[in-house]
Structure formats: structure tokens, C-alpha cells
Amino acid sequence: MLTFAIRRLVLSVPTLLFISFAIFMLLQLAPGDPMAQVPLTVPPEVKERMRQALGLGEPPLVQYGKWLVQMFWIEPQVLWDHWFGTNYSEGKLRVISWQTRSPVMDIVIQRMPQTLWVVGLSYIVGILIALPIGIYSAYRQYSVFDQAGTFVTMIGFSIPPFFTGPLLIVIFSVQLGWFPSIYDTTLVVDSWADFKSQLQQMIMPVMVLALQTTAQISRYMRASMLDNLNQDYVRTARAKGLSEAVVVMVHVLRNSMIPVVTVIALGVPAIFGGAIITENVFKVNGIGQLLITALFANDLPMVMTLTFIFAFLIVMFNLIADILYGVLDPRIRYD
Amino acid sequence: ERGSDGNVSIIYWQAPSIMNPYLSGGTKDIEAASMVIEPLGRYDPTGALVPFLAEEIPTVENGGVSEDLTSITWKIKEGLLWSDGTPFTSADVVFTAEYCMDPEGGCAQLAKYSGVETVEAIDDLTVKVTFSQPTPNPYGPFMGGQSPILQKAQFENCKGAAASSCTEQNFNPIGTGPFMVTEFRPNDVISMEANPNYRDPEKPAFATVNFKGGGDANAAGRAVMETGEFDYAWNLQLAPDVLAKMEEGGMGQPVAAFGTLVERIEMNMTDPSPDLPEGERATVAHPHPFLTDLNVRKALSMAIDRELLVEVGYGQAGRATCNLVPAPALYASDNTECLTQDIEGAKALLEESGWTDTDGDGVRDKDGMKLSLVYQTSTNAVRQDFQALIKDWWSQIGVETELRNVDSSVFFGGDPGSPDTFQKFYADVEMYANNFDGTDPQSYLSMYRCGNEPKPSSQWQGENINRFCDPEYDALLDELARTGELEERGRIAKQLNDMLTKDTYTIVPLVDRGRVSAHSNTLGGVQLNTWDSELWNVADWYRIEQ
Amino acid sequence: MLDHAITRIENLRVEFETKAGTVVGVEDVSFEIGPGETVCVVGESGSGKSVSSLSLMRLIEFGGGDIAGGRLLFDRKEGGEINLADVDQDLMRTIRGNEIGMIFQEPMTALNPVFTVGRQLTEGLRVHRGMDRDAAEARALELLREVRIPEPERRLKQYPHELSGGMRQRVVIAMALACKPRLLIADEPTTALDVTIQAEILALIDRLKRETGTAVMFITHDMAVVAQMADRVVVMFRGNKVEEGTAEEIFENPQHPYTRALLAAVPKLGEMRGKPLPEPMKLLGKDAVTPKPIPGTDEVLLKVRNLTTRFPVKGGFFRRTIANVHAVEDLSFDINKGQTLSLVGESGCGKSTAGRSILRLVEPMSGSIELGGKDIVALNPRDLRTARLDMQMIFQDPFASLNPQMNLSDQVAEPMRNFGTLKGKEMEDRIAMLFDRVELPRSFLRRYPHELSGGQRQRVAIARALALNPKLIIADEAVSALDVSVQAQVVNLMMELQAELGLSFLFISHDMAVVERVSHHVGVMYLGRIVELGPRAAVFEDPQHPYTQALMKAVPIADPRKRKSEKDLNFKPIPSPIHEVGYEPGPSEYDEVTPGHYVLTSDSGY
Amino acid sequence: MACLTRGSVMTDPVPIAALQDKEPSAPPASKWKDVWAQFSKHKGALLGGGFLVFITLAVLVGPWVWPLDPQALDIRNKDLRPIYTALWDGEAKVSWGHPFGTDNLGRDQLAQMIYGGRASMAVGWAAMVLSLLIGTGIGVIAGFFRRLDGPLMRLTDLFLSLPILPLLLVAVTLFRQPLRANFGPEGGMFILIVTVIGITSWMPTARIVRGDILALKEREFILAARSIGTKPFKIISRHLLPNVLSPIMVSATLGLATAIITESALSFLGVGFPSDFPTWGKMLADAVPRMEEFPERVMLPGIAISLTVLGVNYLGDGLRDALDPRIRGR
Ligand SMILES: Nc1ncnc2c1ncn2[C@@H]1O[C@H](COP(=O)(O)OP(=O)(O)OP(=O)(O)O)[C@@H](O)[C@H]1O
Ligand SMILES: Nc1ncnc2c1ncn2[C@@H]1O[C@H](COP(=O)(O)OP(=O)(O)OP(=O)(O)O)[C@@H](O)[C@H]1O
Ligand SMILES: [Mg+2]
Ligand SMILES: [Mg+2]
User: Fold this and answer.
1) Which ligand is nearest to the CA of C325?
2) Which of A267, B335, C238, D264 is the most buried (most CB within 10 A)?
3) Which residue is closest in CA terms to ligand 1's atom 28?
């Protein structure tokens, strides 16, 4: 198992390098210009100067090389310095965003809390709702509950968040005035009142996102339960005189969770990637919003770094899912 | 009394990403920064110049501007302090000019300093700017939100190539304005508090500011007018009915003001046909097959009902116009003939000049050439509505239109490699809005000089978007540059404006676009200003007790 | 004794609601089981054996069944007799696993793969006996000892997949016995196991019954097992009981025609004693032609010399080969035209690999294969494809070896299409002829595999193998998965084809009785080597190698008077065929005891 | 015993039942009839399929039944409400000329729904087919050819981490002009959007197919096919593909749904079709600001999208059951 993990880890290095190169070239090819947001009153020569100042004049390969060095050599040094109070990174140029002229990683770290809170919590809520629905629908296959659950989860799957989001805002913010329509990212929770307002502002984005998660995970759960409910070992468990609760919730569930847990693990990178539309609708200003504004502002270093982080997480969680599979299922051995 | 009114919340649906206007040309950044750092003088809502850090606005009359128009001398108010308590001196002003004029800095406001030869400190409170040639409008540097004064002590090490590594300075500039930054989260939130060293001890009335960015205009308007979560929302580019509906929310109200921003259709005088080899497409080498015909351009303009466009797209935030320079009054031509739609007239005009529908497909043609246009603009709901309406009218006069909308980051991006930029103009007509800084249209009108068109040899840079070329126009421009007397300047500018619009229909102005913002009913002191930052007088804002 | 029957089934009727309407799983079955008695329920697949036993456990409800009629009387330890058919599931739970234990057919899937053996064993004890964890574990250990699992302490911590099939089945038995049930239901507990392991399990159940006086309901379709185990026998046929009696009565004097047909189809080890040549079985109900012996020829068709096949085991950081599975080691034999060579041996000894290596479906590592003088090993891929015109294969699992998405005529036509041997009308005629040949109605041409029974499918596989007129057919456990009656038919069919077409067979099987019936020559394999090779009569009647002798002893004989006793069995666990890279086992050396009868003298690992 | 046996042959000349072939009782049916029989038992699938057929027909023949041009502006009749609002609101501006009402420029909503549906359905189908082809192709190749497995799976990782928006912008710049020249402005954009959605959504299909192929490869019938000389290509097309049909079917239905939703999200972000080219997603996105006054403008396209996706999903469920011979066989 350990060799397997290490091997895959080492193999993922060239993969990631290749991915980063591919993303970089793609972004190079992309049209658009960081100067697009500069008003038309600014004359072209000035814009050209500004471009030069951003390092846009250099050939793409040189830019890529610089990015690699900054991302994999200087940024870790910064992290090291931050933890241990050393100063290796002093005076070295980090990955700088074109929009804000500040280190990309700082902004990413700044955005992490709200993204994790909202998107992460919605993932957890979604899973917590999905699992019981999936289990019960499978146990009572074709019952009214199953049919209704299927219907509702499919509706949840099919309604885009840019529709549910504003709908919730109109109902709960404008009409009822229960929840704020604009998320306050500066809120620090240190009292019950703050906690309450935190809850209030999270509830709508979390529910919108959880709807999607619920829909998908409950489908997986149901299918996996159905697979296992017909297995021989279930009959054996019943023949031992175990109660239905134990048979289903211990024997069947434990087996059914194996594929579902890996599916859940594969969904985790999306949490860090944020939820572009939902964040935008509720002004959560997390990673998703960061990516979309960077994209529209053609802030290449930011887009590049974010997509790369995302790619990194995907590759890692692919690996984690594989390892989890092996851990959860004693039959699987990697050697 | 300072700080007595608690907190004010402002929402900008485009989030500020930096507090240094010299490193970003974006309006959102300039306006956010304007609460913290200030120029020597500003424009007020009428376009008049008012002193801020200067004692008075220098003019030829008061001797501040030299007779030969080559230098301007600013007197700074006495006793000004930076928010860190250090005194404000002319050295800071000189430094600011150096900072922006550094060739490696990539200063976004460099155009403000064009023609500047030297900036020197005469004494601690006097600065003299010398231009290399007579400059009738010497209010480029240190005037308006684009050109505020930076503190020398803070930015000393940030000149040139080092500009972008000064994150701390760019996010938290020390200023003389009513507020200072306590926390800056790029593209998200800025928290500010009142500047204890602000020159007026009574102001600002608010102790803190919560400046939120992000989302869309719709949500921003809703947050001010419907849910009352915010006090001020910037630039609500929304359809009039949407805005009206929001106002019914009763928590706030929209305010509008007009500047020089004109939504216009530009006619391509060159041939954008994709059949031409790359490098010759849309260049002066190939005149446009039919848009060079004045009657066609005129007919296209006549077919448009500008009032309806305003009603559909802007409501109280728009005025139909026939002028490229709609304000200030001194420079605005009184041309109104285009305001009435005349479909029949347009048809007759086309008929007259030989454009008839010979093959009965509803599209006029002549010499085997069809009146078929590609009409491009950037992606934006109102613009798309305009496209649809105009396409409809043009089809009524027998002109076929293909619509195209391009993502605005590409359209305005100026990437010479992209075929979709407004400069390349790979379309027959295109629509966008433009304006000029300050109140003087000289440089704005100079854009349409012969040879200033985007072309391959200039990397497709250039401002003469429709490739207009008229020696008479150029001669008139030169005359304008030599003239200092205001009345005379106004006359020449009007004549130039008419040459582009009603005489040649090279530019077909549609709507004079105002600015709509909204403030809550409890926020007082808002004076919407389109000539400068909207937040120019934020120091005077206060809470209305209810 | 019958007055105190532990359980009495009276007129049981079980129905299933399916989409196609109501299906009757069991129509009318009645029998009883007394204490200390083993009642064997026999009958072929689908006759309702499992359904009856599941009804008794009231587990049938979970499979969608419904007890539509009859009574299931069960004598509880205290509280007297109750009718299980109408007690509620709560009470049933206290009976299941406690008073009635059940062993299932498939040891591979009957255990939950993600829990340890210990956990699964103690579960029932903790529920029914209210034991705490330590007590339950102690008891579990005791149980594992009772079922004679080696190293019981270690097993408790292991997961099911870490045990061999035989060990798993013992765990299932231990589980069923955990609470000392009064009735033990064993549903085909040995069908999936090797003869040697089967013998051990049978002995185990028998001993436990004798020691504890438990009543045993033993379900099987293997008459040899019945002969070995049964006190009384219940014969079922299409949901009905057709006959009941003591084992001797049933075997010696069957009354119902079905029972007689069944018995006639059972090959009995030793039946062929004295007949040098194989001959088809005499089946009931078929045209009464007297079976003729099949002589074959002496002309060598296939010549295999020193065939060695190893599978690399990859591992480590660079995924290099760290070891090899020595699946086939230095194998040499000949097959004559029109004759059959059988390879027998326990699971994993390399029989299938040997067969596949000959067709080069797996690449042999070394050795030579000559088919009709052509060296198969040296062929390039294109020529190999053509060479396969002459050799075909029939696989073990009739459910897996046909593509579920293709209709039968297409499946049979495929080889002809591949080689373009026949086209259009000619091909259709040949397909029809082949269907006639294997006695499938032509109406089956457009059907799909799932509509057929196992025997019918296997005949399609045979038709497919015959389509190209091959000279050699490798039949890899071709009849192992079939019911006895069907098995007999398929075996007869193969022998008839051999007689008529002069086919040669490499017949791979672990069923000694069938092998005895069909072979001219027999090779006994152990750990990848042939330990004994010779004419069938010589090997069966005069086994020389100790392994062959042990194997012969383990085979149950379908005759209740020839029961084996436990002490005859002595099996060692098979050593692993995995060896380090670079390990080179010595060559096989044989001693020719009688002409053509070779016995391995070098080390075989046994 | 021998005597007994002979006796029984004489007394019982009829071959006894047990040794007779059990013929399937049902008459031989074609595979597709079977599939249909199973499919028609799944109520949800029937409803979903029926709805899908209805929607497809509606958008295909709609323009003949309702010949209004969706582009046509009728500014006098702008902001009409759908006809049914008259039921509870006598004051509402309604007109039989525009049964679903009009938008703020007076464009007919019914016509927009029809044309928008055309675009959405076309994008959905085309993108789904494309992603299916790529996904199945890559999955089959990776599963079948062991050597290519690693590289192809890493490629899948790469595509998983590709951001769709920049990709779309790149594609628009690089290919708009040639595509426009060949297929017209809408056709060109259609091809672009379909391609981008297609190539950013094939990865799950590829993974599932690969997994199934790996498992199928070990089944005996594949070995059997090899032993009767079937060439690799034929093994794939005849034996592997038909057997992974049901997971492919499920991905297909999911793919259709996601493609429709992705297209609408792109419209929402403003990078989709030309402005005057309605799609359900764009109608929905455009109507969100006026959701309170004109709820129907969000509801109509919203419901259309949801029902289509729902219908497709149920159809997928039913098809999976119908195509699986094990389920069908029961
Ligand atoms: N869940 C079920 N649904 C429908 N029919 C069933 C079900 N289980 C069993 N049957 C039917 O009941 C009949 C008896 O099946 P059963 O499993 O008892 O056979 P068996 O004698 O145990 O066969 P085998 O030797 O193959 O195990 C069969 O014809 C089968 O079709
Ligand atoms: N493809 C393979 N890769 C690695 N090892 C294999 C492979 N195929 C078979 N083996 C190993 O080779 C040995 C012989 O296997 P084989 O299938 O030939 O046995 P068998 O005698 O046919 O057994 P059974 O009676 O169970 O079919 C076993 O240990 C098996 O695990
Ligand atoms: Mg059974
Ligand atoms: Mg085998």
C-alpha cells in the first residue's frame, strides 16, 4: 500500500507538470488582455507600457519558466519562512496577480475560509441528507418514498443554481427579510449574535449547493445499496438471526459505502474550487468568484495558479480515492 | 461631528482590486482610492474645477497659468497632514509625478502627464509644472480622481519596476482623504475608518466604511433599494423597468447625472471582408464597398428611433443625442435633427442613390452588392436589446444585419492577435460607448485624425476606429490646439463634432448615457458627479435621522 | 422416532410475484426430519430445493417469495411445536441462527467481505446468547477448533478473502453451529469445492451430527454426495416431491421414473472397470442404442513437450517482476487422433493454464507444441490465427462463455465469419446442421443466451467450437457446471461427435467419475506438473503416485454401501506455486511402470 | 439393476420430462421487441420518454404551427403577460396573439420557447453524442490496450482539470472565423459550444467504460472470441461495446442533461450564443432580474429545462433496465 501510494505520488509529478504546461499554453492562446478593463480614455501607448510592465512582452516559454520557479521554489520558501520565521524568500519575486499587484497565494489563502465554510458545509449537508435518502430508497425500492425521493433529487439536479439562487433571495431576503442577500466575508464569529448572523448568511448558499450534492450522492448511494442488498452475505446475516437494522445499517451499509466514499472523495476538489455561479449570486467572494473575476480581467497568473491548484487537488484526490478504496475494502491489495 | 454617524456601507458590483489608481485604470479602483488619496483639485457635478489640496485653481487670470500656456503653478493649502500625522509637502507632489512618469512603472495615468517637461517644487507649498509646448488645458496632472497625490515617504521604494512588489503600499496607501484603509481584501471588501488627521475636524460624519465589491448591478441595486442592507450602490446599469421596480422597495432611491459618455455606432470606412488577406483586412488600402456612400450611412442613422432606445435601455439615465460631444454646454453642438426617426425618408434616400431591391428578397442591392451588415458590440444586456431593435429598423429599410457580440474583455482587450477587438473592427458597424476625461474634448476629437487608425503596422493600436480621414478636419484640429480662448475653442469643437456626426454620419451617436447610482433614504449628502469620482464628496455624507 | 420429528413440512407451496406473473417455486412438498437424522433433498437445478429450505428459515420473503400454503412445523427446545409459516419475523429472528442454522452454497460470497471472521462468528452469539465480547470470542475459537481450521487464533483476525474456499466454508459451518441449533440446513455446501475439500467438509458435518444429535437437512444435486451422507432421501422434481425413502431404497430400488433417470445419468467411479475404451453412457429415455466403445487411432495429433507457463507477479516501486506463478511446469504429453486425454487435479494446479497455453491464449514461456506437425509456439500472430482453425475450446461456465448480447446463430456463425470459410446460404445451412448435430431445435437460432438453460448453452458452445471443423477441442471443465442429467447428455454428445468425426479432446476436469467415463488417457496434475500419466485403466485401477492415490480415495461413490470414513482422508495443504524470480525447479523425471504409464519420480511438492 | 433399467425403457418409452430440453415458453422475440417490452413496464421511463418525444416534436414542428418569428420586435405589445394570468388578474395585459406573453422588447415568448428549445435540445444532443463518442472511445482503448491505459488516464486527469471558460474563449478566438465562414454565425457558435461542452465532459464516461471493459476483458466469452480467431477490432465492436451499452446509456442521459445545463450556465455568464439567438438557458438568465414582476419568464424556460432533464433521467433509468439482458431476462 505504501509503495503504491509513493509510486503514484511520484508519477503524479510529471503528470502535474504536463497539466500545468497544457493549461499555460491554453491560457496563452486565449484572447483577451489584462488591459481590457482600463477605460478607453487611456491611450494605447500607455496601455502598451502597462503591458510591458506586467512582463507580457516576454516569450511564453520564458513566462512559463518563471511561473514554475515562482510556484515551486519561491512560494514554498515563503511558506517555510512564514512557519519558521526564517527569511529565505526575502526579495524574491512571487507569483503576482496582474489585477491586484499582490501575491496570488496570499489572496487564495484569504479566500479559503469563506469558500470552505460555504461550499464545504454545503457538501457535508448534502451528504448528510443524501445518505439516508439513498439508503431508504434502496431498502424500499419502488416504494412511494423511493419514487418521491428520486423525483425530488432529480429536480434538484436539473435546476441550475442561477435560478434557485435569485429565487431564494427574492423569497427570503426581499419578501420575508429573514436572511441577508449579500454575504459578509469580514464577519468574525466571536459571540452568539455573530454566530447567528453567520448562520443566517450561510443558509441560502449552502442550501442551493447542497441540493446538487444531495441529488448526485443519493443516486450513488441508492445504486450501491441495491447492488449489495442482493448479495449472499446479506442472506447469511439474516440467517444468523440479526435484526433488520443491523443487517442493513451494519452489513450492507459498510459494503455500500466503499464506492460512495470514493465518489465523495472525488468531489472534494470541487469544494476548494468553489462554486462559481453560487458564489457570484450570493456575493460570497470565495475562490470561485476569484477565478471568474480573474478570468474576465485576464489576470493570467491568477487564473494559471488557481487552475493549477485545482488540477493538483484533482490528481491528489484521485489518488486518495484509490487509496481509500484499498483501505475500506480489505480485498483490494496494491502491490 | 466626526465619526458620530457610525458605519456606512457601499457596494460596487465590480470589486476594487487595488487602491493605487496609477497601477490600474479601472473606475472601481480609482473611485475606491478616491476616499483615501486626493488630488490637488477636482471637478464638481457641473464640471467646474474646485480646489481640494490646493488653495485655488490656477488660471491665466489669477496668474497660476503662464500667459504662453506652457506652465502652471499650484499653491498647496497650509497645514495639511497625511493620515499618519506627517505634513503634506510639495515634495510629495513632485514625487507623484516622478512615480507615474517612470518609464518602467507601467503607469496607467501616464496620459495625464503627456507633454509635461518638468515638475518642480518651488518651495514647500508650491509646485510648478512646465509643459514642452503651449497647453491650453493644463489640468492634466494632479487634477481629478485619476491623479491623486501619493505620499513620498511611503512609496519611495516603489518606483519603476518595483511598483508591483509594493503590495502593502498599494493596498493601504497613506492619504489625506477622509478615510483610511484598515483592511483591504482584493476583489472583495475594503474596511475603512475615519482619518483622524483629516483637514476638516467635523468630517467625515461616518466612523467606518464597509466597501463591498462583487456580484452584479441587479444585486447591488436590490441591496440598497429593496433590502436596505447597503447605503450606496454604484453604477446601476439596469433596464429602466427593473430599476423602477426596485425603487418600489422603498428603502432607497436612484440618482442620475450626465457626463460625456455617448453610446454610438461607428461606421467602418474600410472593407472588413474576411476574403481579404490578413493584414489588409479593415485597412485603408481597401475602402468599404458601400459604407463609403454617405447616403447609406445617413439612411442607417435616419432609421433609428433614439428616444425609444433610451426608453428601453436607460430610462432616466439616458438622453437621446446626435452629438459625439454632448457636454459641457460650451462644446456641445445644438444638432437635434437625428432625433426623429424617419424610416420613409431613409428608404427614399436609398432609393434615390440607386439602392433598390432587385431580386425581391427584402434586401436592397446595387451592382450585385447587397446592403448586408455585420453589427458587433460587446456582450451586455442593454447593448443586445439595442442590437435587436436597430436590426429590426434596418430590416425595415431593406438592410440585412448580422449581429455579433463579443465578450467585453476580448472586445476592449486590444489584443493584436484577436480578431474580435473593437480596434480591428472586423465588422461593418460596431457599437460601444466612449467619453473623455475632464471637461476638455481636444484630445478626444484628435482621435479621428488621419493616420491615427489602428493598422497592422501599429500593432492595431490607434484611436481612429472608423478610419475617418479628412485633411480639413486635421487642419481644424491643429487650429484648436493653438487656440486658448474658450469661446473660440467651443466653436471649433462644435464644428469638428458636426463633421464627424451630422455632416458625414461616420459616427452615429445614439444615447448620452448618464450614470445611475442609488443611495438609501437615510444617506444624506450624496451629489452624483460624472466628471470625477462618484465618491468625491464622501467626506460630506451623513446619516439622516428618521 | 418420527413422532418426535424436529421439523415437519406439510404441503408447502411457495409463490413468487414476478413481472411475468406468479411463478410457483415449490408446489407441494411434505417431509419431516428427526433428531440426529440426515435427510438429503435432491433434484436438479430449479426444482425448488433452495426455496424449501429458505421457507423454513422464513428468508424467502426477502427474496420476494410468499408462503402460499402449507405448514412448517418446528419443535422448539421449550415451548413445543410451532408453525413457522405464520409466526412473525420478530420471533423468527430468535429462532434463526439460534435453533435453526444454515450453511449456504457459495462459500466465496456467503461471508461479508469487509468484516473479520471473528466479528462475523461472534455476532450471532452476542445476539442470541447475550455473551460479551470476550466470551463470544472464546466460543468462536472453540467453534473454529471444532470445525478443524488450522491456526484458529489467527483466523479470527483475518478477512474472508484471506482464507481458501474450504476454510471459508468451514467458517460458515461454524457460524451455523454457533448456537447449537436443533436443525442444520446445508444448501449445497460442497458444490463449489474440490473433491478433497468436499470430502473433508462432508466428514465434518457427519461427525458434528453424530456428536450433537442435530437434525440435518442436506440439499444437493450430487448423487454421490447423497450416497455418502443420507439417512433418508427426498427427491424433488419441478417443485414437487416425487419420491422419499432411505438411501438404500432410493439407490437400489427407485420407483419414480425421474429418480431412475437421474440415477442412470450419474457416472459412478469404478463403473468402467474392465472396459479399456471409453463409451457413452446409457441414458434413460433416449433411443435404446447400445453404446459403442470409441477406439480412436494411434496417430499422434498433438505433441506437447516441456511446456512451461509462468505468470509474472509485479510489485515494488518500479512495478518490476518480483516473483513468478509457476502455473504450468515442464508438461509433456501426446494426444492421438480421435482420442481423449484428460487432465485432472485440484483447483489451481494449472489445468486451465495448460489448455490455454496450447491455444496460445496465454503465452507459454518455453516448450514446444506441435499440432499435426506444425509448431504452434513459433507461429506469428497471423499464422497463429489460422492455426486456430484446427483447435477450439469449450469453457467451463456456460453463462460466461456466450456473449449475452448476441443471438445464438450469430455466435455460432462468428468463427466462420472470422475466417470467411463459408458465406451466405452455405453458412446458414451449416449453422442449422450444427444445431441439429448438438440436438438444439432450430427455433433457437434467433434466441439469446439468457433464454436457455445451462445445458443448452453448453451445447451452443460446442456447436460454435465445431463450426470450423477443428481437429482438436480443448474442453476446459466443459461439464462441471451442469446438472447430472444434462451433464450426461453433453458428455454423450461429445463422445458421439468423437466417434463420428474423429475429434481429439483435451478434457480438463476435476470430476474423476466423468473422467473415467470419457478418457483414453489420463494425466493427473499437481502444482503445475503431471504426476502420473497413462492409459485410463492403468491410472484409475493402479494409481502409483501417492497424490493420485489420495485423490482417488477422496472421490465419493454414488453407492450408499461404499461410504468412506473420515480416517481415510489425509490431505496436506497445497504449497504456493509462487516463487522468486530466478527460481528454477528441476525437470520432471518419470518412471515408466507399465508401457505408457508414467509416474513422476522427481519432487512434485506433494 | 441392469435388468430393471431395461425394463423401465420398455415400460416407459416416452422420454421422461427431466431429460427433455426445456424450451423457453415465450415465442422467440426479437431483441428490440424484448427491450421494448421491458422498457414499457417502467412507468417513469415511458413518461420521461414521452415527454422528450413531445418536446422534440414541439421544437421541430413548432415553427410551422406557431409561425411567429422569435426575433420580431413588437414594441407596442411589450411586457404582455401569459394568457392564463387573466384567470386571476383581470387587469393583466394579455393577448391571444401572444399566449405566453412577450418580453421587454415585445418578442413573442412562445416563439422564443420553441426556437430556444431547438437550440437547447440541439446543443444537448450534439454535445452528448460528442462526449459519448470521445468518452467511449478513450474508455475502450484504455481498457483494452493495457499499454495505453496509463497515458490515457493521465489525459483524463488533464481534461478534468481544464477550466471550461478559458477553453471556450480560446476556441472562440481560434475557430470562430473559419467556422463562421463555413457554417454561418449561429452554426459556427453552435459547433464551438457543442465541441467545448463535449470535450470537457467525456471524462466520467471514459472512466466508467474503462472499468467495465477491464472487467469484461476477463470474461470467458472474450477469451472464446479470441480462440475462434476474432480480430481485436471485432472483439471491441461485437463483444465489448454491446456489453457496455447500458452504462454508456446512463452516461448519455446524464450527459444530455448536463449539456443543457452547462449551455444555460454559459449563457448566464455571457459567453454563449449570439444575443439574438434564444436558448432556454439564455431566456432564463435574462429573465432573472425581472423575476418578481414576470415570474413566467423564468418559470417557462426553467420548467422546460427541468422537465427535459427529468425526462431524460427517467428515460435513462428505463433504458438501463431494458438493455441489461439480466434484468430483461427475468
Ligand atoms: N426470487 C425469485 N423470484 C422468482 N422466482 C424464483 C425466485 N427464487 C426462486 N425462484 C423460482 O423457484 C424455483 C425453484 O428455485 P430454487 O432456487 O429452489 O431451485 P434449486 O432447486 O435450489 O436449484 P439450484 O440447484 O440451481 O440451486 C425456480 O424455478 C425459480 O425460477
Ligand atoms: N492470468 C493469470 N495471472 C496470474 N496468475 C494466474 C493467471 N491465471 C492463472 N494464474 C495462476 O496460475 C495457477 C494455475 O491456474 P489455473 O487456472 O490454470 O488452475 P486450474 O487448475 O484450472 O484451477 P481451477 O480448477 O480452479 O480452474 C493458479 O495459482 C492461478 O492463481
Ligand atoms: Mg439452490
Ligand atoms: Mg480452471
Assistant:
1) 2
2) D264
3) C46
